[in-house]
Write a structure and sequence with these properties.
globular, Spore Coat Polysaccharide Biosynthesis Protein SpsA, Chain A
């Protein structure tokens, strides 16, 4: 089964080249779809000059947000399985092998990579950054809400590593623009009746000074998104 890796890119000039090498080293039949969301740090120019046969490039005409970048990437998918991959090196592409296995074996249609099952809290403590406890507990609240509202039975709702059979993600009417992609897609796959299978993953959180982009307001927006889609489509 062919894997389509969607990479939303915005101002990651310091990590995108290394991330692509990691993705490329994964020995799976795959295509890479990079959507530049109007980067201003040189990432856009670097991507335009990149020569690679298995990479599709999409360039936004302005900065819309991560959710819109993922939506643009989905339109370019030709594979059987879709993986969402951030460009910031927090997540390890070597986890792809285990993430896609339940779908390849016909045991799941949707798979999330869980940082909780992968011992996230240990990595948080190793960073010695109080701000990361805010992210951790914020994620726990979102997960609890997803479990209450949608009976999701998951441990890590806001994880980046979300994996889908391509035909499923293509038929979801996504409306997200920013970071509300995660709660929206979680809500909608559960309302469609799909069980979310979880796999433990590795996680190396970067510090705020290294460019963490999610803000406090995004947490409120995620909560509202989960609540909203419980009652509307």
């Amino acid at each position: 089964m062919k894997i389509s890796v969607i990479i939303p890119l915005y101002n990651e000039n310091g990590t995108i080249e290394k991330l692509l090498k990691k993705v490329d080293s994964v020995k799976l039949d795959k295509e890479i779809i990079i959507v530049d969301d109007y980067s201003t740090d040189g990432s856009r120019e670097w991507l335009k000059n990149l020569k690679a046969k298995n990479i599709k490039k999409v360039f936004h005409d302005k900065n819309y947000g991560k959710g819109m970048a993922i939506r643009s990437g989905i339109k370019e998918v030709s594979g059987d399985i879709v993986i969402i991959q951030d460009a910031d090196l927090e997540y390890d592409p070597n986890d792809y092998y285990e993430l896609v296995k339940p779908i390849q074996e016909g045991k799941a249609e949707v798979v999330y990579g869980s940082r909780i099952l992968g011992n996230l809290i240990k990595n948080l403590r190793n960073k010695h950054t109080e701000a990361y406890y805010e992210y951790y507990y914020g994620g726990r609240i979102l997960t609890l809400l997803a479990n209450i509202l949608y009976n999701a039975k998951i441990t890590d709702e806001p994880t980046c590593y979300k994996v889908f059979k391509a035909d499923i993600i293509k038929k979801i009417n996504l409306k997200c623009k920013r970071f509300e992609f995660c709660p929206e897609v979680t809500a909608k796959v559960r309302k469609m009746g799909y069980k979310i299978h979880e796999i433990p993953i590795k996680y190396n959180p970067r510090t705020l000074s290294e460019g963490k982009k999610i803000k406090f307001r995004d947490g409120f927006e995620a909560v509202w998104t989960l609540i909203k889609y419980r009652f509307v489509n």
